[in-house]
Amino acid sequence: MSTGKTPVSLDLDDLQSGILHPRPSPYVGTYVLLRIDDRRDGREMLRRLLPVVSAGRPMPTPAPGAWISVVLTYQGLKALGVPQDSLDSFPPEFQQGMAARAELLGDIGESSPANWETPLGSPEVHVGLAALSPDADRLEAVLTRARAAYRELPGIKAIWRQDCYQLPTGRTSFGFKDGISHPAVEGSGIPGTNSKEVPLKAGEFVLGYPDETGQLPPMPQPAVLGRNGTYVVFRKLHTRVAAFRQYLRANAATREEEDLIAAKMVGRWRSGAPLALCPVRDDPELGADPSRNNDFLYFDDDERGFKCPAGSHARRMNPRDAFKHELVDVRLHRLIRRGTSYGPMLPEGVTEDDGVDRGIMFVFVGAHLKRQFEFVKTQWVNDGIFIGTPIEKDPLVGPTDGTGTFTIPERPIRRRLQGLPRFVVTRGGEYCFGPSLSALRWLAGLKT
Ligand code: HEM
Q1: Cβ of 225: how many Cβ atoms within 10 Å?
Q2: Is the CB of residue 314 below 6 angstroms from any atom belonging to ligand 1?
Q3: pLDDT range class, residue 327, cuts 50, 70, 90
Q4: What is the mean pLDDT of the chain?
Q5: Given a cut of 90, is residue 66 above it in pLDDT?
Q6: Cα dihedral 411, 412, 414, 417 in deg (nearest 10)
Q7: If residue 314 lies in a helix (H) or strand (E), which one and from where to where?
Q8: How close is the Cα of 314 to the center of ligand 1, in Å?
Q9: DSSP state letter for 104
Q10: How confident is the model at residue 20 (pLDDT cuts 50, 70, 90)?
């Protein structure tokens, strides 16, 4: 952890606020992917998008009624004619793109790029637009403005669109409240959700500022391109809700036990109430109370995971102080998540698959693709070595294949669930760069 005492002042007017700010609740959103066939049109589009992109101090409600953000893939930067020495200054994993990293990330079998939705994972994905708003009218208004930036440019093609919205339950398709736990970022004005977590150094999430190591993270060059930018990972994750419900039913004697096993797998009850604070039964009031529902640590109270298993999704993804006497520095692996739900709910009580696509557009934001997103996905989702159960993967989102196990610490003896199938299938995704406004201006003005 850095010992620097001087608070960092982030250049918020230069940052895309839609990338850093938590989404509104409720929300509707649209993601659009674009291909640049002509670099001059690509630059013109960025120039026209500049006044539409949200910047400035993040507000709980966006001033124009919606946030719109623009991100670029490595192929997109190439298509814009970014000079080679600048392209080479991006980290190798970004240059390769998500599909090339599939095996490492555990995107194999059904989740492998060969089975991804077209055009995800292909070199045609150049630009991503993300719009989020509290309501459909304001979303449409901002999308219309964004479309006006490229519609008449023959060298730009819209190649994919995904609409998202908060389900009527306010929860994700598996039935759990999500988006509760977020880190605070020094200087961002965005409050974290856990008063026990010291705000993270701005350089963990924004390029050009010291990170938790006290160093400046490696930054794409020239500085005007890198500074105030960040990396954005998006993944379309299909959720097998019927299979999840069937698994719970097959492994529990009662409805109450189904709820308990589900909570043990997630680390929270469906209402969002954390097992660490209420291990026996759900407490919807606690789940709904932002001043309490993320206010906990693990080590002193629940080191061995009798309340919240070390292998549960949320504890894996953020072990908090669980490793305080070990070498793992959790603060180097924190993620900002900006995910949204897509597809309709599977009606309550249905356990047969209806064949409808539903899930999460998972979005990660951070300055370090490798030691944040890739580390967490490979070491903490796909593996169990760090918690002493090497063969176990994340029971909710891990690439399990029907032979997965999940340990629930209990007295006098632990319970071990067997035969976990895959509940989440990757439909595609990409590694993107979210440039600052200055960088967008620089890209728009390229003369190559
Ligand atoms: C369909 C896939 C997924 C579902 C349904 C899902 C669901 C959830 C839920 C219900 C929570 C608890 C709410 C909260 O603490 O905010 C949570 C927390 C979290 N998830 Fe996921 N998740 C998914 C995929 C992922 C992936 C792929 C990652 C990372 C690679 C991830 C990282 C996290 C993190 C960092 C937390 C917060 C943990 C904390 O701070 O306590 N999730 N997720």
Answers
A1: 24
A2: yes
A3: confident
A4: 94
A5: no
A6: -100
A7: helix 313-317
A8: 6
A9: H
A10: confident
313 Cα: distance to centroid of ligand 1 (angstroms): 7
**Contact 247 CB / ligand 1 (< 6 Å):** no
Residue 63 has pLDDT above 70, yes or no: no
Is 374 near ligand 1, meaning CB less than 6 Å away? Answer: no
366-397 per-position pLDDT tens digit: 999 999 999 999 999 999 999 999 999 999 99
Q: Is the CB of 179 under 6 A from ligand 1?
A: yes
360 lines ligand 1 (CB under 6 A): yes
Q: How far is the CA of 380 from the centre of ligand 1 (A)?
A: 12
User: 238: phi > 0 → left, psi -120 to 50 → alpha, else beta; which?
Assistant: beta
* 181 C-beta closer than 6 A to ligand 1: yes
Task: State the sign of the Cα–Cα–Cα–Cα dihedral 409, 397, 70, 27.
Answer: negative
The partner residues of 162 in beta bridges, in order of sequence, read 31
Q: Is 377 in the pocket of ligand 1 (CB under 6 A)?
A: yes
- b/e 267-305 (16+ beta carbons within 10 angstroms → b): bbbbbbbbbbbbbeebbeebbeeeebbbbbbbeeebeeb
Whether 304 shows a pLDDT value over 60: the answer reads: yes
Q: Summarize pLDDT for 261-272 with one digit per residue, the tens.
A: 999 999 999 999
Residue 362 Cα to ligand 1 midpoint, Å, equals 9
Q: How far apart are CA 200 and CA 187, in angstroms?
A: 10
pTM: 0.96
